[in-house]
Please model this.
Amino acid sequence: TDLVKKLARDRVAVGRRGEVAGGRGVGGGEEPLAARRIDHLHADAHARAVGALLHAEVGLLDIDVDDLLGAGGAADLVERDFSADRPNKLWVADMTYVPTWAGFIYLAVVLDAWSRRVVGWAIGETMTTDLVLAALNMALEQRRPSEVVHHSDQGSQYTALEFGKRCKEMGVKPSMGSVGDAYDNAMAESFFASLECELIDRRSWRTKAEARMALFSYIEGWYNPRRRHSALGYLSPANFERNHQDSTNRRAVEHGLPTVGVCVACATPPVDNPAPCIRASSKTLDCQALNRPR
Model:
């Protein structure tokens, strides 16, 4: 269409890094870093606008232009405060790579900031949105939160429209730190530091399948049920959550709301019923006589 041709001509005219109609910037030399950065941002904004208009004009995707232009990082709802006073209040998420002799595999995780437990994880061979979605879906299936903040960095997998749509469907509030600042997602980075120190740096794997099994064993066989944390009173995530559940059950009993276990313990014990009357030789035997000790 005419619109597409006009946009293409405008893009060539703008160029990158100060190139104007095929020429260099003023003086024909290299531009200062700040100027190149501004030109790069202008070119990026232009490319995003071109993409949005092309989608709207040609109909390549069934999405709204405003949604496309609005895709990007969410606000930082955490601001480096990873404290949580209850389960499923704050989740932190990130992904990393694991080397093997056969190539890299990638691990995406979701941790509950309250107990440090890995509530969702996924392993794949590519760093795609599907990988972080799989980890999020596992966390949602296991925890079923009513309202939770999901905090991550601004990786393209987390800023993708598909990921944002899934968060909106499930009532998850996305939160993202600033670009390139590991401290904004320090809790997730801390988990990967432990993983690297305790597993990756000590092992090597010939196949990707071996690495997958090692990661599974580390998360479900060591980190969640056994690895102790000073922030949890030197309890493992699983034991910390178990103690919390036990204390919750005790408080429920004190308030007149017994749990199933308490009801079973307080159940009336079975009793021996008298033997039924027995009719033999057309004569009825005395039931009490049968039950009388001899």
Summary: Strands lie at 90-100, 103-112, 117-124, 148-152, 172-176, 279-280, 283-284.
